[in-house]
Amino acid sequence: MTAAPCSGQPPCRSADLVQRWHADPEAGHRHGAPKPREANHVWLIFVIVLLWSGFSPVFAAVMSTLYLPLTLAALGIIARGAAFAFRKASTELWQRRLFGACFAISSLVTPFFLGAVAGAVASGRVPAGLAEGNVITSWLNPTSALGGVLAVLTCAHLAAVYLCADADREGDAELARAFARRAVASGLASGVVALAGIAVLHADAPQLFHGLTHRALPLVVLSAVSGVVGLGLLTRRRYVVARGAAALAVAAILWAWGAAQYPAMLVGSLTVDQAASQAAVLSACLIALACGAVLLIPSLWLLHGTFQRAQTAGVSNTHGHTSP
């Protein structure tokens, strides 16, 4: 969210919130902005532990060849959480702006490097074995750059879409429209980059390109249709339904990547069967995953519902209060 004012008076509500946010760490939360909740550690632990336990040769190859972008992504996650915490504890305006800038930059850096890692794997630049791939060119290449840019744009799009519904639920129609404009802009930008990426994949990752245009084509079409439907729902201010469409668009393209390179896990090196651990290990992983899901999913649902009810009640009390 930028602090650029809208044309006309009074100033844009989003610009006003940013100014209040710099002046007072809690101002945004008291005026309709939902409190951010970090959950990076949940999915990171999930992916890393399952990859290490179930497909250890892939884990070893990815971690040893791509340790530079993975380290930069981890530093971005750490900097993001630290900047948010330190900014709230800061008393000087320049300190809050400094930590706010650090928060914003790390929010761009982290998805970019994770997307670059995905591009390296998808383009076949991570061979099996310990550090068998080039530690520089494996992630500094056209497909990795495409993956990084798409990751940044899709994260920005999902964030804006989800914040639309939050702002609308809390009665701030102007802020919801501001987020909707950003969601539409980031969604269109994602579509343009994805179309340009066709030529990139054709030249730089031909096996992935072939899979996306053949076996995984239905999923690619599903992603495109869901994205267009989501943009239409945003313009009609159907923010809650737009969340589902946006999430489906992103999930479908991730499924398309998996389908496009199946059965390969490391293109040109390892298939699923070759990389998989013994049956006993995979069974233990599935059992542990099921037990964890029984605990985790209801807990996350309860946490989400508690925050939603607390925010809605706070807004209702604020709107219903009348001065004597």
UniProtKB/TrEMBL annotation:
The record's section on Pfam families has:
Cyt_bd_oxida_II
Membrane-crossing segments per the record:
42-60, 66-86, 98-123, 143-163, 183-203, 215-234, 241-260, 280-303
Membrane-topology descriptor = Multi-pass membrane protein
Q: Which UniProt keywords apply?
A: Cell membrane, Membrane, Transmembrane, Transmembrane helix
Q: Where in the cell is it found?
A: Cell membrane
Task: List the InterPro entries.
Answer: Cyt-d_oxidase_su2 (IPR003317)
Family named by the database record:
Belongs to the cytochrome ubiquinol oxidase subunit 2 family.
Q: What is this protein called?
A: Cytochrome d ubiquinol oxidase subunit II
**Origin organism of this chain?**
Streptomyces cinerochromogenes
Which taxonomic lineage is given here?
Bacteria, Bacillati, Actinomycetota, Actinomycetes, Kitasatosporales
